[in-house]
Amino acid sequence: MANGTIAIAEKSFYEVSTNxxxxxxxxxxxxxxxxxxxxxxxxxxFFFLVGATIGLLMRLELLTPGRTxxxxxxxxxxxxxHGVIMIFLFIIPGLPAIFGNFFLPIQIGARDVAFxxxxxxxxxxxxxxxxLVLVSLFLPGGPIDTGxxxxxxxxxxxxxxxxxxxxxxxxxxxxxxxxGINFVTTVHRLxxxxxxxxxxxxxxxATYATAWIQIIATPVVxxxxxxxxxxxxxxxxxFDPALGGDPILYQHMFWxxxxxxxxxMILPAMGVVSEIITTFCRRTIFGxxxxxxxxxxxxxxxxxxxxxxxxxxxxxxxxxxxxxxxxFIVALPSGVKIFNWVATMYKGSxxxxxxxxxxxxxxxxxxxGGLSGLVLGSLATDVHLTDTYFVVAHFHYVMFGGTGTIFxxxxxxxxxxxxxxxxxxxxxxxxxxxxxxxxxxxYFPKFIxxxxxxxxxxxxxxxxxxxxxxxxxxxxxxxxxxxxxITGYLLYALKKGPKASSNPWGGVTLEWHxxxxxxxxxxxxxxxxxxxxxxxxQLKEMEYDK
Amino acid sequence: MTNSQQAAANLHHVHRDDVGARMGMWLFxxxxxLLFGGLFLAYSVYRYDYHEQxxxxxxxxxxGIGTLNTIILLTSSLTVALSIAAMQKNNKFLxxxxxxxxxxxxxxxxxxxxxEWSGHIAEGLYPKSPELLNMxxxxxxxxxxxxxxxxxxxxxxxxxMVVLSFMLFFIAKGKITPENYVKLENAGLYWHLVDLIxxxxxxxxxxxx
Lengths: 546, 209
Description:
The structure holds 2 protein chains of 2 kinds. By secondary structure, chain A is mainly alpha-helical. Chain A has helices at 24-28, 33-61, 72-91, 94-107, 116-138, 154-157, 162-189, 202-234, 247-281, 288-301, 317-345, 354-377, 379-385, 389-419, 425-452, 466-496. Residues 1-8 of chain A have low confidence and may be disordered. Chain B is mainly alpha-helical. Chain B contains 8 helices and no strands. The N and C termini of chain B lie far apart (68 Å). Chains A and B meet through α7 and α8 of A and α1, α2 and α7 of B.
């Protein structure tokens, strides 16, 4: 990709400060995209562990019928918090804020993002929102209990701290918008000479498409949740049926954002998958242009499908079948990606290292998630399955099995580059397997229970579900155990791991051309791009571990 | 500062990209349009549902104040544009005077708004007031939307005033120069957006009967 412009040994960004401060302030006030990426990583990983712990508590409650460890109101609070934390604090910002920040500028050959100070501001706005979520737990009134969708009219009637939690979500949205603006401008303005649009790595394409969704969709949910706050404070009646407002309008406006947000969550993950598959197959990607375009297609069609969340809310039948059709159409670009990934592996020389195993996990789990989505997108089956565990199983397979899995995949792929250390590969391989077992034990029974009629968000259940609930809870132990195991060996590697080379996997995108960890300004000289992004003929001239 | 930090500071390139800065601003304005777009959507839905009651409720709004405020905002858009033009022509003083006029007009707008709102509140027309709750649903929603939409717009005027005050300060400090005035330009763009949104709010609330 870059010809003869490989940076020589320089001090890494850990050793050089971007400002006049040293120590902790050199981090807190940094404008370096890599340091900001790592600050996001620490913060987001923390909230992920909090969210996972809450999930574990909910599963413990459901171990036996009736009250096990908590009361019904606590349970309502916990599933709301689990949703709010996992969606707004982990999965939406996760991949773009951590890996987008760290690798997007490097992959296009830039020294930083277009607006480095704005980047730091987005981080602090994110932290402010996160703190407000936590504060809302402890204020009088009690933590929010509406579910993460904040449906009207309950969210106006309940006495819990809905307003503060919603305001926090608004602030998190602002952070997301600013990050999106930053990335779009960076991709347009800061590509290295020679890097035409179709020479960008696919992770950049995916993050670029994501950034557009962040810009276009987030303001709409912003105004929607702001209206709920105003409604609660002043009682203006815009959504309140008692004053002539329309609660269904709330649902439309909420899902106009929140469905595209699903693609904010999954698109960057798909970008990472493209990176990992090419690297470990030592082969250029099959159908580069279709994969890049399918990201944009998902971003575009993703806007037109929101009302499939509302098939039983009281829409016209015509609207329902139109949205059902559009929902099927959005499956096409996802299918394009999956087929192209599989075609890339065909006749590739596959090197099944840890990140690649995570991708295998992803393809399996995400396919189950995607196909069960078609069941929910079909009108007749959706009416039967709405608000059952089937939906819960579906979106956990998509979100956690898709994005969450790739969060770990990306972590294992880029860990040596980000920290210059290597983790224990044997432990990592074991954790992929236990993750797979725990995940399917935890979520697959929910498909069955949902089909049998177990409603979501219920605190208690009929005895006939007892066995499946037990299997599910035991799965949650394996899964959470795996997550803490992964956290453990990665932290150990950080401290005591062997030094990683600049290119441990044999990748060819720009980040593998520079030392690990990267130097302060990424490139000593901005490289001139002459190769296609996945042209493995360059590997002959590059140093890498066999 | 140690030697190595000094060396690093020298190495650190100074990044400046006016086209990029303008592009970022346009993207941000786009999100603002969408933010108000949600409200316009709600307005159109309820106008469709309650068109007769919206018509009746709109009769009570003071078209005179609305027109005056429209003229004020349009003029302020002109003065902010003149301020940028003056800066481009290296006339720092005129640029500051024009910015000052813009701020004065914005303040004038807010004062009008204050009298208009307090007038309605004195009549007992405010959310949850017994007067309003006695009215028909469509009228309640009309006033709800009126307060929310003009209120959010007013908030944007206030934010714009803060931004423009900073620009005035930056010009005085010499941080905005004829060679580097993209900050002022972006502040101007923001101000035009505030103006533009009002141009849509004005007919929707004051003129359509």
